[in-house]
Specification:
The chain is an alpha/beta fold. Helices cover 39% and strands 14% of the residues. It has 17 helices and 13 strands. Strands 5-2-1-6-7-8 form a six-stranded parallel sheet, with helices on both faces. A three-stranded antiparallel sheet has the order 9-10-11, covered by helices on one side. It has a two-stranded antiparallel sheet with strand order 3-4.
């Protein structure tokens, strides 16, 4: 048994955030039906890099799902969607606000067919406000949300799409399902990736509210930073608690720095420069061997390839090998009702007839819906 067995999700999203959210729901038992544009489908299907002609990202994010091809510009296709919504628990879409309303399959039409439906429009800026119709991508939400200003350059991980969009969508769906158990009614869950980015700013906001300037987790203090080593590698030091910082100072040969962990302006104390110079005297492997005997929160900065080769992550199922590819495993890890990755991703429209027939749509309607 999995926690979401018996829950049906209609997924009208494209690309990364929505697919990541519904992959998590599918991992834990939900039946996820991708509703795609005939002839084209989810853009991720053909987005480089390709593996055997299919987008690698699509393969990673669509295991165990079904695909139904519906033309929502066709009245029959729209009616087929409304029919599917009658037996669905959740519908997630990522169009700009108002698109489904103009097609006649927006929230009012959906809940008229199914008052228990949970409707999740996943957008950049939400359903309200002056920005609601603006275009954007991860870097834009990170920039407006203040997170990009806390970083150096553009991160290679899509925090707004995944933490701000996908994870917020999963949380919203689970909360709405829990509420429906009490009320018997579905509801609209307005997920905005900009909102999700702002929700990550607890530590910077702490410093802003206190009027204390730049927060201590930006690398300006020696105890929490990244350092180069003699072999061109880098080590991350996260020695925030005094006991960890003491261990770092002892290993580096600077016990006198221990009392001055957060003293004054680090650009003037010289502590960080001294620590940087010390790390450059040995290789990463030599330093890791030295810190293996200390309780210090010092780790290697690894490449993605090194992370996915990690035997412990494979043993935990965080990294799995399927169909000749590395995949991100199922998280979180529930002890009694664990999730699992499903079968290979569906071909475009592979399950159209199966799903529509089960919903009671006739053969004639099938031909005119797709």
């Amino acid at each position: 048994m999995r926690p979401l067995d018996g829950i049906r999700v209609l997924d009208l999203t494209r690309l990364l955030p929505g697919a990541s959210a519904t992959q998590t729901l599918a991992n834990f038992g939900a039946e996820v039906v991708k509703v795609e544009q005939p002839g084209r489908g989810d853009y991720a299907r053909f987005m480089p890099p390709l593996i055997e002609g299919q987008g690698a990202m699509f393969t990673l994010l669509n295991r165990g799902k079904k695909s139904v091809a519906l033309d929502l510009k066709n009245p029959r296709g729209r009616n087929a969607l409304l029919t599917l919504a009658e037996s669905a628990d959740v519908l997630i879409e990522s169009f700009r606000p108002g698109v489904l309303d103009r097609l006649g399959v927006g929230w009012d039409a959906l809940r008229a067919r199914n008052p228990r439906l949970i409707y999740v429009p996943l957008t950049g800026y939400g359903q309200t406000g002056a920005r609601a119709l603006d275009a954007g991508h991860d870097v834009n939400y990170m920039a407006l949300g203040g997170a990009l200003g806390e970083m150096e350059g553009i991160p290679g991980v899509q925090f707004a799409d995944l933490a701000g969009g996908a994870m917020q969508t999963v949380i919203g769906v689970l909360l709405a399902l829990a509420a429906r158990e009490k009320t018997g009614r579905g509801q609209l869950v307005d997920v905005a990736m900009l909102d999700g980015v702002v929700s990550l700013l607890t530590i910077p906001l702490t410093w802003l509210n206190a009027g204390a300037g730049e927060n201590i987790l930006t690398g300006r203090y020696a105890c929490y930073s990244v350092y180069g080593t003699a072999d061109g590698r880098s080590l991350a030091v996260g020695a925030l608690e005094p006991k960890f910082w003491n261990s770092v100072c002892e290993a580096l040969g600077f016990p006198e720095f221990a009392p001055d962990q957060f003293a004054g302006d680090p650009r003037r104390t010289g502590i960080k420069d001294a620590v940087s110079a010390a790390f450059l005297t040995r290789t990463a492997e030599e330093w890791l061997a030295a810190f293996a005997r200390a309780d210090a929160c010092v780790t290697l900065v690894r490449s993605i390839a090194e992370t996915f080769a990690d035997e412990e992550l494979r043993a935990r199922g965080t990294v799995v090998r399927l169909d000749g590819m590395d995949h991100i495993g199922v998280t979180p890890k529930l002890e009694e009702t664990p999730g699992e990755l499903g079968g290979t991703p569906p071909a475009l429209g592979e399950h159209t007839r199966e799903v529509l027939r089960a919903a009671g749509i006739t053969e004639n309607e099938l031909e005119e819906s797709c």
